[in-house]
Amino acid sequence: RQGNASFRKFNRRNERSPSSSKRCSARVHVQVFPVMSKSMPPPSKGLIYAELLANIRQISVIAALETPCDTATKVELSGNGQEFILQHGGESTTLTLPGRIVLTTQLQKPALGRKELSWRLPLDSPPTRPDAEDAQSNVAPWSASNLREDFEFLCRDCGAVVIGKGVIKTWKDLPSENWAEMMDFWHCHKPDVPEHERTHEHESNGAQGPEELDTENSVATSKGYGANTKFAANSGTAFIDITTFLLSPSDCSNLEPLDNQTTPALEQKVAIRPIHCKGCSRNMGYFDEQSDGVKIWKWSIKLSQANPHWSSGSRLPQMPSISSIISTRISSVLQAQCCSRLLLHPLEWKPSPAASDAMNKMSPSLLSLWILTPTLRYSATNSSAVDEPNLSPGKLAMKVFWKEVTEEEAAKLMDTVEEVPLPSEAIQQISACLHGSAVLLPPSTRKFQGWDVGLLERWEEE
């Protein structure tokens, strides 16, 4: 009441004195702020995720909304059957599907009051050859067929030249990692060596004698499939596998080993020396004593902007993601070992069942992976990637269940998983990729019985 009385007195004074009103209006500045209503709903655009189920020729679509469905919520397909359109909360969201839907498909109406909706939509086209090839492909970026003599590679961080233009005259793809093992197996079970290839004939009670064994081993070695056959680094030639370039040290620039530091490589059973960039100290690879060469991680370098990104009709990425490289490595392990459970661990790590709590806290993270789908196509409204016009619709990826484990937990898994040794920083980047991929998935699909669910990008050639 007292405030209202003062306000009335103020108005009466202003009515009696127009000049004072002018002075007051000149001094008083009124600012109006918008008031947010408590009943105002949050943004309702939501998330739409679509996944191609190639085996049953359907596309699974899940829409996760911020607010429950109401009578205004509607869904429809575009005229060409390629786009899924959701109208909710006054907004329209369109998602390009990873395949074309049968045009006569009748979409189920959204259930009122629900925040998550799902559909199974039939594909219009029959199974195609690219679908089958995607499921079996282990193509990694920068294969030998796409690289030329005039290509130049730089450090991905500081841009220092690592492989100069014209240094590499020949690019060659290395065979799969289990190639030597298969050749050894064939050598042990092959038919007898032809008579003209034997230099000594020596038999003892029907068994092969040492002279004959030495002769057969020398023949195998000369043909390239002996147990002691290896690839040696040669100047002017680069050998390429899924994750590395194998080069002669003389063909590399701006690289240096860390003094007095070696890492025991579990695969080679020998010590390797990490190699870093002189300009920024980035881990670039390691010196491989078996081949007397340098192995450079593909995710540590980039293709020079001066080089054309098209070669032999294929698109060359300037900086392929580490996810696209590691996922190809994982896929090759799956096909070679027929095992869907893997452990990503640092090169220097060795299992220790009696690891202390302090060691578990200080040790780098180890990733336990359970591969659910090695190859799938998906599309999501939260994806920042842009569809390439010459590629199949949707993005190619690998769906995995994953979790970070301690050294003690990892040691208990050794009998049930395949090991994939990688640099510690590479494992950290893969962990970050898996964490980041969660935003593409509907909230209800991000967890499964204690596992996190994530997507790893797969490389796809045009």
Automatic annotation (TrEMBL):
Matches recorded under InterPro entries: UBQ-conj_enz_E2-bd_prot
Gene Ontology biological process terms from the UniProt entry: proteasome-mediated ubiquitin-dependent protein catabolic process; protein autoubiquitination; protein monoubiquitination; protein polyubiquitination
Transmembrane segments: none
Gene Ontology cellular-component terms listed: cytosol; nucleus; ubiquitin ligase complex
One Pfam family in the UniProt entry: HECT_2
Domain of life of the organism encoding this protein: Eukaryota
Compositional bias per record (Basic and acidic residues), positions renumbered to this chain: 195-204
PANTHER family, per database record: E3 UBIQUITIN-PROTEIN LIGASE E3D, E3 UBIQUITIN-PROTEIN LIGASE E3D FAMILY MEMBER
Listed name of the protein: Ubiquitin-conjugating enzyme E2-binding protein
Native species: Lachnellula hyalina
